[in-house]
Amino acid sequence: MKAMLILCTGLLLMQTAVAEPDPVNGQKLFAASQCLNCHGTDAFTKADRKVNDLAALESQVRRCDANLDTNWFDDEIKDVVAYLNQAYYKLQ
Ligand code: HEC
User: Fold this and answer.
1) What are the structural domain ranges in the chain?
2) pLDDT of residue 15
3) Which stretch is the leader sequence (predicted)?
4) What whole-number distance in Å separates Cα of residue 70 and Cα of residue 33?
5) Is the CB of 88 within 6 Å of ligand 1?
6) Does ligand 1 lie within 6 Å of residue 51's CB atom?
């Protein structure tokens, strides 16, 4: 029983470690991408920007990623979302 508990706690901890988005990695991915081919970073800060919550930011990053052949994995998308939010959007 005790071993089971330790195992479960361990698995939970591992999951949080994996699920935590990493804005530093997001910045690297973004810098290495062709994201700025179509729009500048001003698209992220302009007064009439369309994205106003994190879910919308994530789906927009997915849509834009689909226009490129980067094919980011799910966790990479989340890293880029975390970076864009930290650097530009500042959403909660
Ligand atoms: C093929 C052209 C194209 C590429 C490449 C592209 N985007 Fe976009 N993106 C657009 C268009 C078009 C819009 C919507 C018009 C606008 O807001 O300027 C947009 C809007 C956005 C927005 C929302 C701006 C707002 O209004 O808040 C984000 C965030 C974004 N792009 C992120 C990215 C990221 C990250 C990448 C790289 C994976 C990327 N884009 C690559 C065309 C592109």
Assistant:
1) 21-89
2) 57
3) 1-19
4) 7
5) no
6) yes
For 38, the token pair is 């179509």
pLDDT at 45: 96
Structure tokens at 11: 């698995």
Rounded mean pLDDT, 69-88: 96
Number of Cβ within 10 Å of residue 84's Cβ equals: 24
Q: Check residue 41 and report its DSSP letter.
A: T
- pTM of the predicted model, to two decimals? 0.85
Burial letters for 39-56: b for 16+ Cβ neighbours within 10 Å, e otherwise?
Answer: eeeebbeeeeeebeeeee
Rg (CA), the chain: 16
Q: What is the DSSP letter of 35?
A: G
Ligand 1 centroid, distance to 41 Cα (angstroms): 9
